[in-house]
Specification:
Blueprint (H helix, E strand, L loop, with lengths): L3 E5 L7 H12 L4 E6 L12 H13 L5 H17 L7 H13 L3 H20 L6 H4 L1 E2 L7 H12 L5 E2 L4 E4 L4 E3 L5 H11 L4 E6 L20 E3 H9 L10 H5 L5 E5 L8 E4 L16 E14 L9 H11 L13 E7 H4 L3 H12 L3 E14 L9 H11 L6 E4 L5 E7 L3 H17 L1
Parallel strand pairs: 1-2, 1-7, 2-4, 3-5, 7-9, 8-10
Antiparallel strand pairs: 5-6, 9-10, 11-12, 11-13, 13-15, 14-15
Bound molecules: aspartic acid.
The site of aspartic acid has 13 residues, from helix 8.
């Protein structure tokens, strides 16, 4: 039988009502047998996540301050869930152990991991599922790097004979036996590892939105949900600032060819977003726009360099880039003309050394003209279908021209997976809205 691994984020398990929704989702599909929970998240916007409460507890313990009250608040959150669910279950002993442990050795990762650990205990009991401690199966080396092969082996070994399990997200242990967490949001990674280990047919990542959006909803009103996105497209959009899954959650499933489905616990009927490999059968898609998503970032500067006959001068680019390298600067884009080149880079990185960099470039290549332009935003228009569609760039430019937005740079990668344009920061939001209109709204009409 093939299984589905289901990971539920903190807001999906923030209170008893959310637990009920989660249980209903799991019970509605017999394949949903391996469950990875986060710690209880926010119930309302200025609520505090249990993970943050635990970090606070550890901080107090570390400075020798009494943390009893802080720990009692955490206990209250779990006890609230347990009693609202009408469960006959107690975490009293667990909390005693945590208090003792924090007094003896206030380790940050141990403290934070208890959020998922305790939630896993509650959820397993509520569902009537087996509990598997992530500390037994998720293994890190002494430097805190995940040992994927050992981990997969340990998971398979541990779940042999179990036909279901709740495995808490976010943490594991090092080969020396210490509890270690992933970076924040790391339960996504645990889910992906478990999906790999049980050779799941799908990794469902349940959260509080119905998938990834084509554009930032703070800029575009009610943007469409992306129905299907490839791992590579996702990487492009994530790099450009779209907030998505934990970065490290892709690799374990990608290497095993397992798709990820982002779903909404509060709207389980919504299909969500499918994250798939490039060779996925896209014919099932109903909504196929030319582009998949739009994302962008502000805070760039361009160094514009001009020199007559630049094209004939061997090593010109190399000398300029060497100046960046010597100053430990990385750059984002470098479009060039016959006698011009321009380099886009992060303004914050450049700021403290801008005069030095200009002086060194002057010395290295003796340009006719060099200037720095600040206040640039870059926008990536990403889509696997662009490769086989003509006129995408023309449409982007037409959209900008109609809005009287000046395009300061354009960069199309060789993969033809994305087109990046640079505009003035003051045009950023309008540019995104116009691109959205051009490709999403007009393709619907
Ligand atoms: N609870 C952890 C956090 O708040 C991990 C997670 O939710 O994925 O970052």
């Amino acid at each position: 039988m093939s299984y589905k691994v289901v990971k539920f984020g903190g807001s999906s398990l923030a209170d008893a009502n959310q637990f009920r929704k989660v249980a209903a989702i799991i019970k509605s599909d017999d394949k949903r047998r391996f469950v990875v929970p986060s710690a209880p998240g926010k119930r309302f916007s200025d609520d505090i996540k249990v993970t943050d409460m635990l970090y606070k507890c550890c901080e107090l313990a570390g400075s020798g301050v009494d943390f009893t009250e802080q720990l009692a608040l955490i206990k209250e959150r779990y006890n609230g869930i347990i009693s609202d669910l009408g469960m006959d279950f107690s975490l009293e002993d667990e909390f005693d152990t945590i208090a003792k442990e924090l007094k003896a050795r206030p380790a940050k990762d141990y403290a934070a991991s208890r959020g998922e650990y305790l939630n896993g205990k509650v959820l397993a009991n509520y569902l009537g599922f087996n509990f598997v401690d992530a500390a037994d199966v998720i293994i890190f080396d002494t430097k805190g790097i995940l040992l994927l092969d050992e981990t997969v082996k340990a998971v398979r070994e541990r779940i042999k004979g179990l036909d279901n399990a709740v495995i808490p997200g976010f943490y594991g242990r090092t080969t020396e036996g210490y509890i270690k967490t992933f970076s924040r949001g790391g339960s996504d990674v645990t889910g992906s590892i478990i999906a790999n280990a049980v050779r799941a047919e799908i990794y469902e990542n349940w959260t509080d939105v119905s998938g990834f959006l084509v554009a930032d909803p703070r800029i575009v009103e009610k943007p469409d949900v992306i129905e299907t996105i490839t791992y590579r497209e996702l990487r492009e959009l994530a790099y450009m600032g779209a907030s998505v899954l934990h970065e490290d959650a892709i690799f374990p499933v990608r290497s095993a060819g397992i798709p990820i489905n982002i779903r909404n616990t509060n709207a389980p009927e919504d299909p969500g977003t499918m994250i798939v490999s490039n060779d996925y059968d896209f014919s099932k898609e109903s909504l196929a726009h030319t582009i998949t998503g739009i994302a962008g970032r502000k805070g760039f500067s361009t160094i514009n360099i001009e020199k007559a006959m630049m094209n004939n001068e061997k090593g010109f680019c190399m000398k300029v880039l060497k100046v960046l390298y010597d100053n430990d600067l990385s750059f984002e884009h470098m479009p060039s003309g016959i006698d011009t080149m321009s380099i886009t880079l992060d303004s914050a990185q450049l700021e403290p050394i801008r005069d030095k960099v200009v002086a060194e470039i002057r010395k290295a290549v003796e340009p006719d003209h060099i200037e720095i332009e600040d206040g640039i935003a870059t926008i990536a228009v990403v889509g696997r279908r662009m490769k086989n569609t003509r006129g995408t760039v023309a449409r982007i430019f037409a959209a900008m021209a109609h809005a009287r937005i000046n395009v300061k740079l354009i960069d199309q990668g060789s993969s033809e997976l994305n087109v990046i344009i640079g505009v003035s920061e003051s045009d950023f939001a309008e540019a995104i809205r116009r691109i959205y209109d051009m490709f999403i709204n007009s393709e619907k009409e």
